[in-house]
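Q: Structure tokens for this one, please.
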Amino acid sequence: MEKLELKTYTDFIMDHAVELLHIDSPTGYTEDAVAYVMQAFQELGYAPVKTTKGGVLVKLCDGDAAHQEDALLLEAHTDTLGGMVSRIKSNGRLEITKLGGMNANNAEAENVRVITKFQGDYEGTCQLIDASIHVNGKYDEIKRDWENVEIVLDENVKNAEDVKKLGIHIGDIVCFDPRTRITRDGYIKSRFLDDKFSVAILLGYAKYLKDQSCNPARPVYVHITVYEEVGHGGCASVPEGTSEAISVDMGCVGEGLDCTERQVSICAKDSHGPYAYDVVKGLIEAAKESGADYAVDVYPHYGSDVEATLSAGYDLKHGLIGAGVYASHGYERSHREGAENVLRLLLAYIR
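A: Here is the predicted structure, written as tokens:
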């Protein structure tokens, strides 16, 4: 297969990734990100629908008459990690509970926005309790967990009543600054590449199909979910006739794994079990045929949307691919070549 020139689409992916990363969307607060995704698909000429659950479902191609019961569903998610106010302290500081797998070690000293339900938003910082090293002699010894960090509001508040007067209440959402940047060499660094980078990749895939007037033999759908980080994003909204689903999520990079940020990762097994043998084999064959730079790995601590789909009782084959991402659930890094290799693999696999 001749190697396609995909720079235009990789540029498109990077641009949309940056824009989407700047939209706060912790699990439970995803409406703005969903509106962005809906508009992006509409501008490409598609007709996305918002699911009852709050995600985005869009049909990319109709397929031919012989393959209507062999549809493929591509799943990615736009919900991210974050926090929620769980207590307003007597000193005006906020205790929070995590949304998804947010880790207190990675949250310390990060800027945040507290989103109230009725009175706007407020800035603050997630800090260790008694965070001044010149004051706290046990600073190094304190375990970084959610009981030992707090949100310090950038407002003149001295007690709980001052905070409540601002309109901040228990249950309000806490969003962490993504700190997105792209380096000269093409690395993209940000919180929440998991999984907004993949959402942008699927937008790039949709643009390619439209630009090139491609119509694969089987129907192809995309579902952008909004509850993946808490385990039930892919449990619903599977179109009739779907026989296969592939999660396009982050590929793991770390000790003992082969994938790098410049590659597409094909997952053979994660902590929930093996992916469908035929799907994994087909993805490897497509990667080889297309010239995509790829790695096959087993992820030791991982779960995906498509496993939620299976757990909900859907009878289908499943797979998982994604651009390599380092430092998952922390300050994450990937590369434009990783996005291009995912796109290359998708185009070869879904012909």
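A few notes: Residues 113 and 123 are 5 Å apart (CA to CA). The two ends are 12 Å apart (CA to CA).
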